[in-house]
Predict the 3D structure of the following.
Amino acid sequence: IVLGNEVLDAMPISKFVWRGQQLFEVYVQYHPSGYFVSQLEPPQDLLQTEFEKHVMRYVKTFENYQSELNLYLGYWFNSLSD
């Protein structure tokens, strides 16, 4: 099986920031002056769950930690094994 890294690069991710002991999801918003800005919002339920399960124990002491999660990577791996 040949798997190019472009397949994984093309998969959607959820970007997040851990700030003030709280998780925020990062969205991109168009600003009326003609450029894009980051917008912090409460996380969707799946991101909150996956963060608590896999990430929180490692970053809970860091402030302004930013990263991303592919919320569907596990499902994708399972489909490969099927």
Observations:
- The CA atoms of residues 18 and 56 lie 9 Å apart.
- The chain has four helices and four strands.
- The mean pLDDT is 91.
